[in-house]
Amino acid sequence: MRLVAFLLLGILLAGCAAPALSTPTGARAAVATFTPTPFPLSPRPLPPVALLPASTPTTVPPTTVPPQPTATPIPGLDAAIESALGFLRTRYNPDYNLLNESPEARPTRYWLATDNWLASRALLAAGDGNRAELVRARIGDARHGLIEALDGEIVTWPPFTETQTLIAKIRNDEIKTEERLSGERYKDWEAYADLVLYGALNEHNQRRETEARQRYDQALAMFNGIGFEDKAYKAPDGHGFFAIYKVALALYVGKAIGVPLDSRLVNGLLAKQDDSGGFVTLYDDDGIPAGDASTETTSYAILALTALGPQANR
User: Fold this and answer.
1) Residues 6 or more apart in contact with residue 18 via CB below 8 angstroms
2) Is 150 helix (H, G, I), strand (E, B) or coil?
3) Does residue 7 or residue 238 have the better pLDDT?
4) Residue 301 domain boundaries
5) How far is the CA of 212 from the CAs of 168, 250, 260, 265, in angstroms?
């Protein structure tokens, strides 16, 4: 859910230059200064207890697919989902039972939340239940505070700003997490399309359907046919880059609350799938993708597409 710096590095790797971007649910702010707990090094494969805190449960309740409404078959959708699933599988590291952030820009960074939390749901929705359970077990009881709305939970509103923590550093690899459980709250959340969409889903989870539709319409009012012109897009460091995960989120939330399908959202999302099968987060005013595909964005895309297609009923 973030417009992360790794995507900009991906642009540079591709021979393009772009400024740093930020967005409330997509951009991860700088991690506060802290002293991480010393972490023992050992030859891979690493034992499970050497990777995450001792409090991580060794068994977890069965993973459930996020609530998904009745499917509406769309030609070619299954192929896109299968290709995206293949991308997630290539991000999976069996030494950690986690997916890395991206193939080029951040291959050594692993996020429990949001990336792997989302990936565990996306893997299951796309049919890879075994890998989904492995990832879910590794995450344990890690919570985020906002994305749980995708599981039908009622989350605190307005949302908190994000806090990031380094859990472990193993040679060149970093295992981190993000949470929104305390601290400051967004005073201007209504200026960000993704937060307004999460607000709509949160209303839906409380069976307040009128309010949910109002929030959804509020978010879609920012959509110009190509992307969401919200505060992140208009920020001085935004320079006209949209984020496709917001389009995926709009599709998912719209389907959940029963809004008629907008073909512009579907076509726009599918156009951001690259040859790797992953979905590239950033794109410009002409709809041209820029930078690296990512686990987080691809997971959002799978959740949206499986909600729309036959695989939603798996």
Assistant:
1) 8, 11, 12, 239, 241, 282, 290, 291
2) helix
3) 238
4) 5-313
5) 39, 12, 14, 19
